[in-house]
Each structure stands twice: as structure tokens, then as C-alpha cells.
């Protein structure tokens, strides 16, 4: 009820101020009687003329102020108002009282009926303080909605420029200034009068008449079951349907509550885009013009039922309340910020005073510092003279030190030269030792080769001697076997010749090995001569250098004819072969 009272007071305030012809803030009692009677009539409240006389008995000498009229208005009219009156008729009565006095005479793009609707919208969006004004945020909201309905694009930059030129002495626009702003077409350029009027009417229906959605649809009858086109108007708790959009011939209502629901239906009986509204005692089948309209209506009705379940106001009223609360919050924050700024300013002034005191103290300290600086300069001159003397003395000492450093550097260079010579000598000694080591390795290789050849020769000589002894024994043993032995002897002779040839070959190889040995020995003697000059320098390291001497030879196998050409193993092998042939014969 408090919200309804606030809305009614705004329209009544316009009527009261219109009756104040000399702008004194007071209205005569005769005019207030007429106003009160008209208010009681349109608000459907019983009128009591005696109560007005009784209330203003002490004010017979003059007119009544707004503050004086308010107690009567609250007690005898507004507190008795019920939500059963025609709000449009109430607003039109108040509009009629104030329009002639305040509406501009200059030509406007909108009609007087459109101006009346803008006036009602202003009362809805204006702030709850007097004199009534509409703040720039609400002006922007209204102009945006009008531009959206007209199908135009919102010019934010143009509105920002308009706000910059806004009068800083005012917090907003009065209703007559708002009507002139919309009527002069500043924010609806390119739009004709009919388009602007249509936009104002649609915004009026949404914000004032709580029309959430409207449009033509087909409805199925309950008795004759025929389909008829109707103009449907959806409001927060009711869907009304009319013969046409002029709303003159109303055909019925669909009462909505939290128990209602809306459902989509499949196409049937040649009708498409069907949906069903279920209420407590009736159901309504409706056909939209297309699927998009069907979905929009289902969504709108579903949202309305959901708001009824939550007990929430219509979306535009809830949005208006949120905007007001936001502005109050911002205002409180701004006031808090201003308070903090004042505190900061006071603190700043205190700091300025403290800084002034500090500045004076600094000036005194600066004068004292100047005197101390003068004394310091005098002391500095004395110290400078003393330092000059010490500096000369230091230069002499430094010169002596530089001479000593140069001498030490020369000695260091000589020492480094000796170190480099010793390093070169060490490298050469290493090379000589490496040559000696290589010569020793070559000698050892040749010695092993010679020993192997001598062993082979000894083995072959032993085999040959064994075969010769066996041959002599066989010749002496029997004469009868002479012929066989003679043949065998021939074979043995041939084998002997072959063995002699091998022996000669081994002799040649032995001679080559001796020649290689002599070459290695000469190399060793040359390496020994190279290293001989270093023996005196490394005498303290005796034992590191040793002369290479020929190795010992294995004793040769001696036969009756001299040194054997075969080894003992070769002779034993040939003896086994000879015995085997003999046994087979």
C-alpha cells in the first residue's frame, strides 16, 4: 500500500502545484475542496466535505500550504484508497489540472495524448522527493526503450554529449522538460510522428499498464469449439483478450495464479503452433501465428506464473527498484567519500601547519649549519695543507717502491726464462728415452725371432740324425732286405735332400735374422750415443738408462756332422713316420 500511496502523491503534487498560481506554495481552500472532491470521485473514496472544514478551521484567514494539506490528504483520502479504481482516469484528472499551465506552446513531434503518457511515465520513473525530477540515468533508460521500440540504434555518444551540456545546478529534468526533450525529436531523428507515438504507447503499456506481452492469436471457443482471432494482453496476473487492438470490446479474461501452467501442443485439426493454458477450472487452447510467436508467448506466460509463485513484482518495477537502490547506494558512497575528503582536507591542513613549524625549525637549523660549514671550511684548509705535505712524502715512497717492483720484475723474467729452458730440456730428454725404449722393443722382437729359428733348426737336425742312425742299423741288420731298404733308402735320400733344402732355407732365414739383428744393434748404438750426453745431467737418477745388450742364445743341437738343421721335435716326428712305413712294408 505504501508504494501505491507514493505513486498517487506524485500525480497529486502536480495538481497542487498547478493550483498555486502565484508560486507562493499555498492554495486556497475552495480550490482544495474541488481537488479533494475530484480525488475522492476518481479514487472511489467516500467524500466528507465537513471533515475538510473541520481540518482547516484554524486556517480561515488564508490559503493552505502543501504541508498543511498533506495530513488531511493522508487521513481522509489516501488511507481509504483501495486498489479498485481506474489509474488512467486518476492520472488524467491530475493531468488536466496541470497541463494547460505548464505544457510548452512550441510545436512538438508528439500529440497531447502522447505527452500525457510521457507525464505518467515520468511519475513512475521519477525520484521519491519533491520537487519531482527524473535523473539522467532514468532519462537514458526511457530514451533507450523508446529507441529500441522504434527500431533505431541508440546513440550513446550523443547522449553523453547531452549530459555534458546538462545544467550542473539541477540533478535532473522536470516532467515538462522531459516532454519537450522527447517532443522536439532530438533523440528520434528520422522517425515520423506515428512511429514515435507508437513507441510511447508501447512503453506506456509496459511500464504503467504492466503489459508484459500483447498480440493477435487464435482462440478455441469453449461452447461452439470454433477458432476466432483475438487480441491478447498479458499482465502480471491476468490475460485479457479483445476483439481488436483498440481494446474497446473485451471478450474475456484468463486469471493466472501459481497453480496455472502452460504446455505446448502438437498440431491438430489443421491448426499449427498450438499451446494450452491450464487454470483451476478451465483450459484454453490457443494458436500462434508462427513457431517464434508461440515460443515467445509460452516463455512470457511461464515467466509470469513463476513470478506469481515467488510473489515478485513485474520485471520493470523490480528493475526500477534495483536502479533506485543502486543510486541510493552510490549516493551514500559519494557522501561517505565527501566525508572522507573533508577529513583528509582537515588532516591536510594540520599537516600544513606541522610542515610550517618544521620549515621554521629547518631555517634555524640551516643558519646553524652555515656557521658550522664556515668552521668546517677553515678546518678543511688546514687539513689540506697538511695532506699536501704528506702527499709529497707518499710520492717519494711510491717512486722507491716502483723501482723495487721493476727490479723484482726483471728477476722474475730471468727466472721464467730458466724455467722455459728446463722445460725444453725435459722434453728433449723424454724424446731420447722414448727412442731408447723403442730400440729395446725392436731388439727383443728380433731376439725372439732368432731363438724360434734356431729351435726349428735344432729340431730338424735331430730328426735327420735319427733317420741316419736308423738307416745304418737297417743296412747292418740284414742283407736280404737290401733291395727294399735300397728303395726305402732312395726315398730317405730324397727326404734327406728335401730336409737339406729346408735346412739351407732356414740357414738363409737365420742369416737374414742376423742381418736384422745387426741393424737393430746399430740403431741401439746410435740411440745410446744420443743419450750418452744426458747421462751426466741425470747421474743422480742412475738406473733409469741402461744399455741394450744382445740376449742369450739357446744351445744348438750337435750331431756327428755339426750343428743340426732340425729340432729334436722334428726328428722325432720323422722317426715315427719312417717306422710306420716300415711296418706296412
Automatic annotation (TrEMBL):
Domain called PH: residue spans: 210-306
GO cellular component: cytoplasm; lamellipodium; nucleus; plasma membrane
Subcellular location: Cell membrane; Cell projection, Lamellipodium; Cytoplasm; Nucleus
UniProt keyword terms in alphabetical order: Cell membrane, Cell projection, Coiled coil, Cytoplasm, DNA-binding, Membrane, Nucleus, Phosphoprotein
Gene3D superfamilies to which the protein is assigned, alphabetical: Pleckstrin-homology domain (PH domain)/Phosphotyrosine-binding domain (PTB)
Pfam families assigned to the protein according to its UniProt record, in alphabetical order: EF-hand_SWAP70_N, PH
Entry-linked CDD domains: PH_SWAP-70 (cd13273)
Principal place of residence: membrane
Coiled coil, from the record: 316-530
Keyword Cytoplasm: yes
GO molecular function: DNA binding
Annotated function: Phosphatidylinositol 3,4,5-trisphosphate-dependent guanine nucleotide exchange factor (GEF) which, independently of RAS, transduces signals from tyrosine kinase receptors to RAC. It also mediates signaling of membrane ruffling. Regulates the actin cytoskeleton as an effector or adapter protein in response to agonist stimulated phosphatidylinositol (3,4)-bisphosphate production and cell protrusion.
Quaternary assembly: The SWAP complex consists of NPM1, NCL, PARP1 and SWAP70.
The protein, known as: Switch-associated protein 70
Native species: Neomonachus schauinslandi (Hawaiian monk seal)
